[in-house]
Amino acid sequence: MTHVHIVYAHPSERSFTREVLDAYLGGLDAAGHTRTVSDLNEIQRPVTTLVVRPALDAAHRQHWSIWHRRHQAHARASRYHRQAALQP
Description:
Elements: E1 3-8, H1 16-31, E2 34-39, H2 40-86
Parallel strand pairs: 1-2
């Protein structure tokens, strides 16, 4: 008896790929093998939420932080120029 892990990825439940998967699973069951199936379309959201999005969020925060510091420096310099122009 063998354990088989299948990674499946097709968005449609009525596809030819799904029919091949079902036939293969039926053959494994008939032969007495154990099996697990991972559907990539089902795990896409948790992976995106836990892995991809934090990386994008970190890059976005860093980009925003750099932009914000530049903006503050420009605003501060403009303020000092205005104050200097108003003083006699």
